[in-house]
Amino acid sequence: MITNDYLNRVYEGLAARNAHEPEFLQAVKEVLESIQPLVEKHPEYEQYGLIERLVEPERIITFRVPWVDDAGKVQVNRGYRIQFNSAIGPYKGGCRFHPSVNQSILKFLGFEQTFKNSLTTLPMGGGKGGSDFDPKGKSDMEVMRFCQSFMTELYRHIGQFVDCPAGDIGVGAREVGYMFGQYKRITTSFQGGMITGKGLTFGGSLARTQATGYGLCYFTAEALKCMRGDSFAGKTVVISGSGNVAIYATEKATELGAKVVAMSDSNGYIYDPNGIDLAYVKNLKEVRRGRIKEYADTHPGTTYVPDCRKIWEVPCDIALPCATQNELDEAGAKALVANGCTVVCEGANMPSTPAAVEVFLNNGILYGPAKAANAGGVATSGLEMTQNSERLSWTFEEVDSKLKGIMEGIFHASYNASVEAGSEGNLMVGANCAGFLKVATAMMAQGVTY
Asked: 305-316 burial, b if ≥16 CB within 10 A, otherwise e?
């Protein structure tokens, strides 16, 4: 609940102006509730309208994306780029291609990205973009034509010192490659740092593919060690999703001694009591682009349930939601608690509803919020930009070591901030406060006209 008068006025005004944007309002409310102790210590924030400026994007770009399908028919999608906050660096955040994409979702993602990037300690502001285009079922040539059309407009608004996109849901190495090629063609320049997630032959970073999933496990492992004196070893883990984040979270959790027993996609989930056959899932999802149901057809003893939200009913010690926003609701959270789960750390962006988070906090669950736990992807994007600027390529081990250090640092920054805010161990409050303070200090230093 927001009890501070200043923050409440700001939120009520924002809600009145953006009543049709529930995801955005949800993200803002969570942050404002957390930072109340800081705002009360700094009355100058109200004097200089800091929060009013913080919750409004600096720029929203919307454009049409016409492209031609394989049948020769012209299709038109809508493209977006939300440049939310550049107080500590150029806008940085992924592009999402999915039918659910709209302004509310991208504003929430850009707002969250601002604080997530702040937590990495790297000089990156917050942004997000994408389109309601769905790559599923499209040929490589259709995806290429869409990406080229998308970048033909977007290129005007981005650059290595302005705004640096990356991948997200529906945007992998294929899509990034097509977009980078079009940007290079239009600008007649090779700006490696203008987009991240590139192929290794043209400026990409080793470990970038694994980064979000690995980083999630590094954060979770450090939280377990420091807050519970425990580890992944011998734990049963449920991971939602079966895309990039889920695959590499499964890989790292298994390396750390856990057994992952469930994964999902938008159609349903699989439960394999023997432990997920990750090599099969990688081939299924990264090569054949198939559905998770096929796993059950080839793995005796596996159960397939055609309802992805019921994955949280699978008994486990640790749950890592890695699919999409608001996938884990109150009922799912209660099912996890009832079945003995003690740790929930988020690999997707805002995957838990406010009601689910309340269940976690009321039942002593070790809860790692997305803006802290899933920052590994953007952290390694920042490391990719550094390598591009230096004209160097680090080894996998060098990048992975830096990633591990960043994720452990994010845990400690979040935990320490939770103590200072009077909410020791509440990593949601801690992450919000730690991320906010750096951005707020920079905004104050740069003046009101900023």
From this structure: beebbbbbbbeb
What is the C-alpha separation between 83 and 302, in angstroms, rounded?
A: 44
> Which distant-in-sequence residues (6+ apart) come within 8 Å of 290 by Cβ?
284
Q: Among 3.40.50.10860, 3.40.50.300, 3.30.300.30, 3.20.20.60, what is the CATH number of 59-190?
A: 3.40.50.10860
Q: Residue 64's pLDDT is what?
A: 98
pTM: 0.94
DSSP3 helix / strand / coil % (the chain, rounded to 5): 50, 15, 35
The residue among 369, 396, 378 whose CA lies nearest residue 219 is 369
Distance of CA 53 to the CA centre of its chain: 23
For 15-55, the pLDDT digits (tens) are: 999 999 999 999 999 999 999 999 999 999 999 999 999 99
pLDDT at 92 over 60: yes
Question: In this structure, which CATH number among 3.40.50.150, 3.20.20.80, 3.40.50.720, 1.10.10.60 belongs to the domain 211-368?
Answer: 3.40.50.720
Q: Copy the structure tokens of residue 274.
A: 């023997």
**Catalytic residue set:** 128
For residue 37, how many other CB atoms are within 10 A of its CB?
A: 16
pLDDT digits (tens, 9 = 90+) for 192-231: 999 999 999 999 999 999 999 999 999 999 999 999 999 9
**Residue 289 pLDDT:** 87
Q: Do 366 and 224 meet the contact criterion of CB atoms below 8 Å apart? A: yes
Burial 160-199 (b: 16+ CB within 10 A, else e): beebbbbbbbbbbbebbbbbbebbbeeeeeebbbbbbbbe
The helix or strand, by DSSP H or E, that contains position 332, with its residue range, turns out to be helix 330-338
Listed in order, strand segments (DSSP E) in 57-162 are 59-68, 74-85, 91-97, 125-131
| SS3 at position 322 | coil
| 91 strand-pairing partners | 125, 163
In terms of phi and psi (left: phi > 0; alpha: psi -120 to 50; beta: otherwise), the region of 230 is beta
